[in-house]
Amino acid sequence: MATDEEEILSSGGVTQVVRVGTTVRRPVRPFTATVQAYLRHVRERGFDAAPEPLGVDDQGREVLSFVPGDVPDNPLPDYSTTDDVLVDLARLVRRLHDAAEGWVPPPDAVFGAIPGTPDPPLEPLFDVPDLVAHQDYCPGNVVFRDGRPVALIDFDLARPTTRVADLVNLLHWWAPLQNPVDRAPALADIDVVPRVRAAVEAYGLTTAQRAQVAPVALRRSRNSVHAMRAAAEVDPVFRHWWQTGTAEKVVRSRHWLAAEAPRLAAALA
Q: What is the pTM of this model?
């Protein structure tokens, strides 16, 4: 591809992303400098499964290296629903966390967030953050090659969190911690609890951290209802999602997880 040719990449409607040769160009946002500093840190620490930050182009756009591979969409294709894939993802997140540990954001750091002001306010998922991590492992942010996950992209929601809270985000999308009617066909009838246990073991959570998984997942599921509703009130993209199925999905997930949480907690004890 010639360096002056631009190919529009799928972005879920939130951000226009174009590919130019071996790079990706995106609009600069308030959190861009913080994310680029974070990506430089984790890559310097050996985490090469993320885009390389390359500054800003002459049009004022953020520049990142292009990560080749396949990016799935919902519903998850069958190749991405195996237990081996989930284990690979848990280990990939562990590598990211280990690389990110100890990074101190700059004094002027700005972190991305879902728009809107939830009412009631969201429940805190933790008291003190451990590190900065991705926090948005939806299928569109995971790159596959030869049927296995190899990289993470779109760090727009990277922010201070904990290892447990960030892993719970992964589990929501990929275990998945969702009502069976909202899962990919290959996962509709499976028992999610053993998959969660396998991912937690692959990641290597401590006993104390394992005890936090179910409570954090429950709080996250309750927060999702309020956060998505608030976002839909102020952002047209989120409004479209909310009106075309998200409203029902987040409520179904909350009820399903509330019923399954005791069994999940017992399996992780």
A: 0.95
Q: Which amino acid is at 10?
A: S
Residue 199 has pLDDT above 70, yes or no: yes
Distance CA 154, CA 157 (A): 8
Beta-bridge mates of residue 142? 152
| Spatial distance between the Cα atoms of 153 and 24, rounded to a whole number of angstroms | 11
78-268, CATH topology level:
Aminoglycoside 3'-phosphotransferase; Chain: A, domain 2 (3.90.1200)
First to last CA, the chain: 52
Question: Reduced to 3 states, what is the DSSP secondary structure of residue 150?
Answer: strand
